[in-house]
Design a protein that fits this description.
This protein is an alpha/beta fold. 43% of the residues lie in helices and 24% in strands. It folds into two domains: 89 residues, no CATH class; 235 residues, hypothetical protein PF0899 domain (hypothetical protein PF0899 fold). It has a five-stranded mixed beta sheet with strand order 5-11-8-6-7. Helix 1 packs antiparallel against helix 2, helix 2 crosses helix 3 and helix 4 runs parallel beside helix 6. The protein is elongated and about 80 Å long.
């Protein structure tokens, strides 16, 4: 670098605005220099693993260029205007269009935040279950057999279901900033609902038991304790329960013998979580909340993308791939009414 580095100058006061701009420009030069160095070295490396690391570091340096450039453009308004002029001259000479983001795409960050708020608001079951990231399109299920020797009795491979949710916002509203982000929030709530349905469908492989009417507090406790006992025969993992809002309301009765509500009594037993979910309908699921029994397999993390214009709107799509891997169905009890 040929310019004088202001950081080496003896001083007893902070940088002026002009000096700070010089420092940032030097930092950008240094990052470009590092990019060139790492990419040049990578060209002569035969070992693919080592080459991959050098190229990955070069990519990180390009991110640093973007960070420093963002700081420079915040401080140097003249630079912003001159960049725009340069872009325009290139467009006139070659037809290549390059634009600075003047905040026109800020809507995506607003929508993404609203979408994720909806997801978190809608998630109930997935938040308490063990999770495993596989970054693949399929996963292996090792069915665990408990006995004198704990072993895998059967292996299966399953495809990880893809869950998607689309939503759209008017182009005019996005341009003038008058759009309502609650559309994205609703989309987030819906994809959380789809997650829950997918997870619950896998619990159906559990052992079935008869579900009573729960007219009395004793009946509620007796049935749930019986199910808990069956699960505890298989594993000592923390017990958990998934229950519908209608059924949960019956747990608010006062238990005559203890003077506590039924739910207060049950919380001492179901320390692995009591989840109220409308998606479970007329069932109650009792299970051991431990990775040796089940986990949520994530093949693709939830992400939101802008698909592009469609008629007079811009379409966005959220996508993820996940499934519930049930390793020991005997550690799951599904209480349901006889059909």
């Amino acid at each position: 670098m040929l310019s004088i580095n202001p950081t080496v100058i003896s001083r007893d006061k902070p940088y002026t605005r002009e000096e700070l701009m010089e420092v940032i420009r030097l930092a950008i030069i240094a990052e470009h220099d590092a990019i060139n160095l790492y990419e040049q070295i990578a060209r002569f490396i035969e070992d693919e693993d080592i080459k991959k690391v050098f190229l990955d570091i070069a990519r990180e340096e390009k991110t640093h260029v973007g960070e420093f450039t963002a700081l420079l453009l915040k401080l140097d308004e003249e630079q912003v205007e001159e960049l725009k002029k340069g872009f325009e001259e290139v467009r006139e000479m070659t037809g290549i269009e390059t634009k600075l983001n003047d905040g026109g795409n800020d809507y995506f960050e607003v929508l993404k935040k609203a979408f994720m708020d909806g997801v978190e608001r809608g998630r109930r079951i997935i938040n308490i279950l063990p999770k495993t990231k596989v970054h693949a399109q399929s996963y292996r299920v090792d069915l665990i057999e408990s006995g004198e020797v704990v072993s895998v009795s059967k292996k299966e491979f399953r495809e990880i279901p893809l869950i998607t949710q689309r939503f759209s916002i008017g182009i005019r509203e996005l341009k003038d900033g008058s759009f309502d982000p609650s559309v994205a929030t609703r989309a987030g709530e819906l994809i959380a609902k789809a997650e829950e349905k997918q997870i619950l469908s896998r619990f159906d492989a559990g052992k079935k038991m008869e579900l009573g009417d729960w007219e009395t507090s004793d009946e509620c406790i007796e049935q749930l304790m019986k199910a808990a006992g069956e699960v505890s025969k298989v594993t000592s993992g923390k017990l958990a329960m998934i229950i519908s809002p209608e059924r949960f309301s019956k747990l608010l009765k006062v238990h005559d013998k203890s003077g506590k509500t039924v739910i207060e009594v049950l919380k001492e037993v179901f320390s692995g979580g009591i989840i109220v979910s409308p998606e479970v309908e007329e069932k109650v699921i009792v299970f051991a909340n431990t990775p040796s029994v089940l986990d949520v397999v994530i093949g693709h993390e939830l992400e939101l993308n802008e698909i592009g214009p469609e008629n007079d709107s811009v379409v966005f799509m959220a996508m993820e791939a996940l499934d519930l891997r049930l390793k020991d169905p005997k550690a799951v009890i599904v209480l349901e009414k006889s059909k």
